[in-house]
Structure formats: structure tokens, C-alpha cells
Amino acid sequence: MIKASAYTFKILRYDARAPEGKPCFATYRINVIPGLTVLAVLLRIRDELDGTLGFRSSCRSAVCGSCAMVINGKIDLACRTQVASFNSDTIVLEPLPNMEVIRDLVVDLTPFWAMVEKIQPYLIRKSPDPEKEILQSEAERLRFDQYVNCILCACCYGACPVLARDPDYLGPAAAAKLERFVLDSRDERPASALAIVDDEKGVWGCDTVFRCIDACPKDVRPTDAIVGLRQKIVKHRLGKWLGRGKNET
Description:
The protein is an alpha+beta fold and 249 residues long. 31% of the residues lie in helices and 14% in strands. The chain folds into two domains: 5-107, Beta-grasp domain (Ubiquitin-like (UB roll), Roll), CATH 3.10.20.30; 110-241, Orthogonal Bundle (Fumarate Reductase Iron-sulfur Protein, Chain B, domain 2), CATH 1.10.1060. Strand 3 (68-71) and strand 4 form a beta hairpin.
């Protein structure tokens, strides 16, 4: 018989619809069998102990990124975090930082999505549509391979110290998505398109302290993308200064 162990879950509760209320921790004591994830326990708490508990979830497979939160002080996905992985029998859950809390562990992702939309996260073509698919070599694919793994969970956005002091900052995920398309051999956006991130609200605002890399559950390195975009911007500026910038229309 599988033996269950008792765990204490302390979950930060708050409802923005009741502004007179203050954030406070609610405590739940629950038996957990080995192999259960934090998300699985959250679903049990909601179904068996407190139906008012608010959190997001969908795929349960670390693909959708919906269940990002702070777990015992570390930003991660609840669906891939084993309860038994902690040395303590007390687990503290808090919503992602740098975003307004809607209710409990649910945050307002509107600013995050606005920054992703700003960089135009899709292939931009100027050439006529080909009759067949655009072939791409393995080497060309590998150039941006790591950035494809981004699931837009906003873990890096919550971990970013720049966003903590400047909510208008672009954020790591948007920069990683932009680099993903800039490096794509099929994309034809001009170098001047990087002007949208060429300021202190964009790639020059990064502190390069790598917290986004530490927080990413998919091993994406947004800081690398920011550095890469900086290099491309400098090369474009230098090319224009030398009078050798490519003719862009």
C-alpha cells in the first residue's frame, strides 16, 4: 500500500473584486501520496476542501504554461513540481510577481501579452508566397531552436528585476520571441524593425543578472536573445554610419 504523508499548504489569498480585503495566507492540511504534483494537490484542495480557491491550469504536462506560480520562493510550473521534492512538509504558494493579482494565484497577464504582441511574433515576408514550403536546413533551424521551446508561461517575466521597477519594460519572453524570428532564415523583416526594442524600455534596459534563465522551465535563455538583439542593433547602426547599410524599402 502506498503511504500518504501529511503536508501543509499555505496559499496566498486575495480577491481584487474586494479591495477592502488584504492579502493573507490560507492554510490547508492534506495527505499526499508519492508522485503527486503541486497542481494535483491544488486540484484536490479546490475539489475537496475549498471550492473558492483560484488558480490557472490546463494541460498538466508543462506545455501550456498556465500554472506558473511561486512555489516555496521559486518560480516554476505547478504541474511539473513534485510535492515530495521538498525537504519540508510545508509548501508556500504565491502568485507570479510583477503582475496585478486578479484572485489568489491568478494574475493579470495583459501587460505580458501586450509586450509579446508588440514585437510581431510571426514570420514577416516581403517575397511573393512560394508555391511550395520554404525549405530550411538543419543548421538554419538550430540557430533559433532553443527559443522555439518558449511556452509563454511568464515565469521569466515574473522573475525579472527590471520589470519590478519599470512595468513598461519589454520583458525577457518578448525579447526571446523576437530573436526567434530574427534568426529564422524565412523571416524577412528589415534590420530597422529592431527599432521597437532599441531603447531603455527594450533590450538596453536589461540588467543581465540571468534571473530569467534560472526561472525558465524549458531551458530557454532569454538573456542570450537580448544580447543577440543588442549586437544586431549595433551592427545596423555601424553599417548606417559607414554608409553601407542595406537598402531597405
